[in-house]
Amino acid sequence: MSYLKDIAEYIRGGESDTENLGLELEHFIVDHNGLQITFDEVSPLIDRVGKRIGAEILYMDGYPVGYATKDYTVTLEPSCQFEISISPYNNLAKIKEIYEDFYSLWEPIFAHKGYSIVTKGNLPLVELGIIDPDEIPLSPKKRYIYMDAHFRKSGKYGKYMMRASASTQISVDYKSEEDLVRKSRIVQKITPIIAILLESKTEERSHLNGKSDKPHLLRVQEWDDLDPARTGFFPGTFDEDFSYDKIADAVYNTPLILLTDKGVTTDVGDKSAKDLVRDGYIPDDIADDDRKKKLVEHFMSMGFFHIRIKKYIEIRIADSVPVDKAIGYAALIKGLIYSQENLENLEKELTEIDSGEKIQNAIHEIEIHGDKAVIYKNKTAGEWASHLKELADAALPANEKEYLKYV
């Protein structure tokens, strides 16, 4: 079986009748001056704490970079952003409980060392122009070293994204190919509204260098100018033939920057998986199913679109926010995406939004005007946000409606 088929079958393998939500939340761990904890300090700390609670320690290039429990996984992002990935559940109270257990474990450990946990879209010192991202060291993982070198050539804000940005990500299930296509389109149409709802800044009028006319969605601006080969809206989403095979083709042709295979990470520049197979760098007839699966997952991980499609749909548009707002965000997505009535309503209301360009135009307006931006159907982003919350409220169970007040 070719890798194209392997990728398509991998995505097909995500089909599920469950309606779970995955939550990933990145944090900055900063000292009293607002500077991030260093890798040399946090890596041994992860190793020690992870072993103490009986977790599986995760290694990369020989370093402890995270740990896994049955309920969540902790990993380090490029400049030691501290990420928790919570196992998927349908119950929002359960997701919040898991996060609070994680927080109650780590907060006193960091506080003892003089560190605080911060949830913002950008590191405050960088957002306010007090330090340059280049002053923040990267972790020594080869993955990030190669990515950093690539992004310095592909766009303006690679150093901002890697060293000084943090996000909240929500993942949702799909039942079939048709369901994935439908949800992917609707989710991308509402991403501008989600982005402004989940904007998390230190100062209202702060902006990126040279972008004083755009004081909103700074992290989105960084991603949109990062690398057009792997950012923005997922390729082909609004084509009539969007499908598992079309997604697989996009993944197979996305430049990889790096390749991790058999535990070794190497720089492959602009070559795609297709190029590496053609050139014999990756065998097309690997018999080891586990190795092939890891390669497929690696290929998929190197696309950083506003949504990422794996065995679930990962929504990547939101800033890092405090847990109450993150759970409110999960409630919003649950009420919208897991309600057939709301899916139908949004399909009808947003029929004319049929391209990534139209959605990007809405993002552009929001970057300038915030929630007062006029986007779809002559309504402001703020009006659309209120509408989405009303739709979600009507669909959520009574005990979960209250979470919407935080978003």
Briefly say what this structure is.
The protein is of the alpha+beta class and 407 residues long.
Question: Would you give an account of this structure?
Answer:
This protein is α+β, with helices and mostly antiparallel strands. The protein is built from 15 helices and 11 strands. Strands 1, 2, 3, 4, 5, 6, 7, 10 and 11 form a 9-stranded antiparallel sheet that branches. It has a two-stranded antiparallel sheet with strand order 8-9. The longest helix is centred in the first third of the chain and has 21 residues, at 92-112. The chain starts with a helix and ends in a 12-residue tail after the last helix.
List the main descriptive attributes of the protein structure presented here.
407 residues, single chain, globular, alpha+beta, nine-stranded antiparallel beta sheet, two-stranded antiparallel ribbon
The helix/strand order is HEHEEEEHEHHHEHHHEEHHEEHHHH
Classify the secondary structure makeup into a structural class: alpha+beta
What is the overall shape? globular
CA gyration radius, whole angstroms: 20 Å
Q: Quick one: how many beta strands? A: 11
Number of helices: 15
Uncertain segments of ≥5 residues (pLDDT<50)?
A: none
